Amino acid sequence: MGGKGRVFRQYKSLSPDDRRTFNRWLEGNAVVGFILVAGLVAMALSASSSGREPVLASGKQVPDLVATAQK
Q: Which distant-in-sequence residues (6+ apart) come within 8 Å of 55 by Cβ?
């Protein structure tokens, strides 16, 4: 246990320059993560609102292909 206290003590023991460097690294990762999440949400929203049936490379729609294969 006590892992959180250990990390906090290590952060407090860093020099001011190291703290600034760590904070910049952390903020940069947060920005990149936010951009990736925003892109995933945008892709999910555009896919859910498109209303199109999936189409295979052969040009057949997926439900038609499944129905044909079951016969």
A: 61, 62
- Sign of the CA dihedral running 45, 46, 50, 55: negative
Any bridge partners for residue 61, and if so which?
55
40 token code pair: 């995933």
pLDDT-based confidence at 7, cuts 50/70/90?
confident
Contacting residues for 11 by C-beta, under 8 A, at least 6 apart = 19, 22
Distance CA 47, CA 40 (A): 11
Query: What is the 3-state secondary structure of 5-21?
Result: HHHHHHHHCCCHHHHHH
Nearest-5° Cα angle at 65, 59 to 66: 150
